[in-house]
Amino acid sequence: MTANDVLHALGEAADTGNVIQSWNDSQALLPKGPLAPLREANWRAWREVCTFGDEVDGPLARTAAKIAGNEALRRLFWHLYWRLLLSPTAQPIADWPKLEKVLGEEGGVFYLLAALAVVPRIEANYARLGFPLANAHFTCQQVRHFCDDNYRRGNQGRIGLYDSNINWLRNYTERRYVRLGRLEYWLDPTPQNYTVFRHRRTGRVVALAAPGQRFDADGYLHTDSARYREGEGWTTTFALDETSATGYLLDPRGMGLDRQVTLSLADWECVLKKGDPVLQMHIPSGGGMGPEACRDSLLEARDFFRQYCPNEPVRAVTCASWIFSNLLETILPEDANLNCFLRELYLEPRPASGNDGLWFVFLQRGPIDFATAPRETSLQRRILAFLEAGGHWRHGGMFILFDDLDRYGSQVYRGGWSPDLPELRG
Ligand SMILES: CC(C)(COP(=O)(O)OP(=O)(O)OC[C@H]1O[C@@H](n2cnc3c(N)ncnc32)[C@H](O)[C@@H]1OP(=O)(O)O)[C@@H](O)C(=O)NCCC(=O)NCCS
Q1: Confidence at residue 426, expressed as pLDDT on a 0 to 100 scale
Q2: pLDDT above 80 for 28
Q3: Predicted pLDDT at 4
Q4: According to the model, what pLDDT value does residue 287 have?
Q5: What span, in angstroms and rounded, lies between the C-alpha atoms of 229 and 151?
Q6: Which residues make Cβ contacts (< 8 Å) with residue 139, sequence separation at least 6?
Q7: Are strands 346-349 and 396-401 parallel, antiparallel or unpaired?
Q8: What is the CA 410 to chain-centroid distance, rounded?
Q9: Cα 50 to Cα 289: distance, rounded to the nearest angstrom
Q10: Are 16 and 92 in contact (CB under 8 A)?
Q11: Rounded alpha-carbon distances, angstroms, from residue 330 to 295, 326, 392
């Protein structure tokens, strides 16, 4: 059967999403017997590891039986499983069918069954890396979070997974990627091009912007050049040699400054630059981002990677997200969990498109539709009020250095900050 034969048999339109991609490759490997993720002993064990309760057993059992008993559905399921977890290179699925004609309201369970099969793949990756099995299993709970916090929220409480979430799972099977407490971390060289220095005597930290960035008059970056006004703002340069670094300051509160400085390397040590290994942080859904949870997770991450990746000179945690937009400091109450977090970090601006990351809050792609956007939570209502008043949304980035974690809670980067720091006077 071709991909379109299968889609036709399932009552779906020809050429739906990117189903056709690598179809022949997966079908050539289609097992004759039962597919592993459909075996009850497997999915039951895996859903327990992922911390699902037994209320999901009914939908999982029904859907597994329907897939096994329908040749077209079985072929499509194998194709999904192979693309997600078995193919030699990542093959993200996009805009796949909801399968309502064949599975009714349980179409999302088709995707969940494939997602649960991530469990043995994560276990194998962690065994290869020498990470403990307990950490593998703790990380696996993300499948349930994707289901409970995202899919159920957008689908009247039904179980399932969104394709954008399901694709993410492969990272856990290939990378040095682990959930520790409230947050997740991925060890990789930083692709970011800002450079961070610490004053050798006072310990003060400053970051200098990447070269060639066009800032607007307020110190922000945009993906759409129309957002810049002619004659306003500045474009950065950066130079580093054996004795000094010259570049444009980044304010730890999350904006660029039209202020060029030269740092003598006799006084300042370069502590983070492009390509250095960092822990890229990811923020799983689920609330509870209180100060202690954030601090404890960061400390656990420092200890974990020092123990299990001792040859990697990691010095920092970095992240980019809507969560690091300094707009939140005007949108949310001062004592909101996210604002407490922001005050502990060195924020840095990222090129903003106007709706970066808002999917995670509204589960809507593209520009927010004010007529249909959910207003169920205070977070949603406050962001919508900002947007409806004509506010331009932006996301942001952050870093925190391992050496500063022991002072978490003291606003180490912002405390006493000024663009006229004594350390910058030379
Ligand atoms: C948004 C988030 C970081 C908030 O953490 P937090 O500030 O500790 O959240 P709280 O538990 O204190 O909740 C604060 C409010 O936000 C709401 N909220 C939390 N997560 C939400 C989400 N993803 N979407 C919409 N509202 C959310 C809560 O319901 C609560 O609203 P209420 O006052 O009406 O009860 C986190 O809960 C989350 O789930 N984020 C989704 C994942 C994400 O965006 N990751 C980054 C990807 S780039």
Answers
A1: 65
A2: yes
A3: 97
A4: 82
A5: 41
A6: 122, 172, 177, 178, 179, 184
A7: antiparallel
A8: 26
A9: 21
A10: no
A11: 23, 8, 13
| Residues 6+ away with beta carbon under 8 Å from 403 | 198, 271, 315
Q: Report pLDDT digits (tens) over 175-230.
A: 999 999 999 999 999 999 999 999 999 999 999 999 999 999 999 999 999 999 99
The reported pLDDT for the residue numbered 280 is 98
Give the confidence band of 164 by pLDDT, cuts at 50, 70, 90: confident
Q: Which long-range contacts (CB under 8 A, 24 or more apart) does 301-310 make?
A: 301/180, 301/183, 301/185, 302/402, 302/405, 304/135, 304/178, 304/180, 304/185, 305/176, 305/185, 305/187, 305/279, 308/129, 308/130, 308/131, 309/176, 309/187
* HSE, side-chain direction, 13 A CA sphere, residue 18: 10
262, amino acid identity:
T
Are the CB atoms for 343 and 398 separated by under 8 Å? no
User: 336-362 pLDDT, tens per residue?
Assistant: 999 999 999 999 999 999 999 999 999
Q: Is 277 in the pocket of ligand 1 (CB under 6 A)?
A: no
Question: Which residue's CA lies nearest to atom 13 of ligand 1?
Answer: 287
Q: Which two tokens stand for residue 193?
A: 């091009």
**Å from CA of 162 to ligand 1 middle:** 18
Looking up tokens 């030269």 gives: 262
Using a 6 Å cutoff on CB, does residue 357 contact ligand 1?
yes
**CB neighbourhood size of 185 (10 A):** 25
Q: Does 426 or 273 have the greater pLDDT score?
A: 273
Cβ atoms of 355 and 409 closer than 8 Å: no
Q: Determine the distance separating the centroid of ligand 1 and the alpha carbon of 380, expressed in angstroms.
A: 9
Fill in the amino acid letter for 194.
Answer: Y
Could you give the CA distance from residue 17 to residue 129 in angstroms, rounded to a whole number? 35
Please state the atom number of ligand 1 nearest to the C-alpha of residue 338.
Answer: 7
Per-residue pLDDT reduced to its tens digit, 46-98 = 999 999 999 999 999 999 999 999 999 999 999 999 999 999 999 999 999 99
Q: How far is CA 146 from the centre of its chain?
A: 12
By most ligand atoms within 8 Å of CB, the mutation choice from 151, 377, 398 for ligand 1 is: 377
**CA atoms of 224 and 216, how far apart (whole Å):** 12
The pLDDT value given to residue 120: 98
